TrEMBL record:
Organism of derivation: Clostridium cavendishii DSM 21758
Molecular-function GO term, any one: ATP binding
Gene Ontology BP terms: DNA replication
Domain AAA+ ATPase: 183-314
CDD domains noted in UniProt: AAA (cd00009)
Keyword Coiled coil: yes
UniProt signal peptide: none
Name used for this protein in its record: DNA replication protein DnaC
Length: 327
């Protein structure tokens, strides 16, 4: 569970409940004016509900029969109330409290389990004005242009860059994303710079964020800075976020300054996440042999053993984009 945002989230739920209470009060006042008879029924129902509760608590003879009678009375009055509301041009639930989330009644919890709306709100708080939110406005599957990938084969690759990317997109959009909740697959995108790996991770982030998953996006540089903060300033909330988010995306692995510290901490993080079956996507401009040279064997063995590897290749898309702009 992600700590640190709990109180902020609980405030949000409380505010929602207050707003809905006020909105209901306004509707009640309106009905009092336009159709006082309905409010009379409302008040009678309230009194009967109270009576129902007290009768249930008291040990009176024939309680069952009496309870049954009160229940029926309430039921009939409710039916009359709904009829009257509709006759007067309102919808039947007009005088009921409205929940924005019916599952948890705007509390965030169903008994002790977190409601699905909880994570969505967490994502909203976490991504308020964040860079990834901005980036995914432009970089998403709707704006992904496969035309940037050549349909001619290059070098000794088996498939053309376009066919290769089509295959990757197919796997991601038809298998990985729809089954996100059911898999613990990690993904490693590797290949030359400018071949759309970052763009691809943004697309995936966007889809999963929209589906309410908590996706944390870090460049490898940022991640190492975060790991320092965790180690030296004991920032537990940050550690919790990195370890327990639904998906951690590490972009441009290998671009950071590789030191003994960074390698050790990175290994610890990868290991923790793999053990906890928390998913990761990593992108790197390094090829597999450079990865092996740059990082200790324990890291590369984690990467090669626990990640699905996708090689991304083709011309430099940034160059192509600029050329098409200047045409
Ligand atoms: Zn809910």
């Amino acid at each position: 569970m992600i700590k640190g945002y709990q109180s902020e989230l609980m405030d949000i739920y409380e505010k929602i409940r207050e707003q809905e209470k006020e909105a209901l009060e306004t509707r009640r006042k309106e009905i009092s004016k336009s159709c006082p008879k309905i409010m009379d029924i409302e008040n009678t129902i309230a009194k009967l509900s109270l009576k129902l509760a007290t009768t249930a608590m008291k040990n009176v003879p024939n309680a069952t029969k009496e309870l049954e009678n009160i229940k029926n009375e309430i039921k009939n009055l409710r039916a009359t109330k709904y009829e009257l509301l509709v006759e007067n041009g309102y919808y039947p639930e007009y005088l009921n409290i409205h929940y924005r989330c019916k599952h948890c009644k705007d509390t965030g919890y169903i008994v002790t389990e977190k409601c699905r709306c909880y994570n969505q709100k967490l994502v909203q708080i976490y991504y308020k004005n964040s860079e990834i939110e901005e980036a995914t406005k432009f970089n998403n599957f709707n704006t992904f242009n496969i035309e940037y990938y050549s349909s001619s084969r290059v070098g000794d690759e088996r498939y053309s860059p376009r066919r290769n990317m089509t295959g990757i997109l197919d796997k991601i959009t038809h298998e990985y994303i729809p089954n996100f909740n059911r898999t613990d697959d990690n993904i490693l995108f590797y290949g030359n710079s400018g071949t759309g790996k970052t763009f691809l991770t943004h697309c995936i982030a966007k889809e999963l964020l929209d589906a309410g998953y908590l996706v944390v996006y870090k460049t490898s540089d940022e991640l190492i800075r975060n790991l320092k903060e965790i180690r030296f300033e004991n920032n537990q909330n940050l550690e919790d976020l990195l370890v327990n988010c639904d998906l951690l995306i590490i972009d441009d692995l290998g671009a950071e300054q590789v030191t003994e510290f960074s390698v050790t901490e990175l290994f610890t993080l990868l290991n923790k996440k793999i053990l906890k079956k928390k998913k990761m996507i990593i992108s790197t401009n390094l090829n597999l042999s450079d990865l092996t040279k740059t990082y200790a064997e324990r890291i590369t063995s984690r990467l090669f053993g626990n990640f699905t590897l996708f090689k991304v290749y083709g011309d430099d898309i940034r160059v192509k984009k600029n050329l098409s702009k200047n045409r």
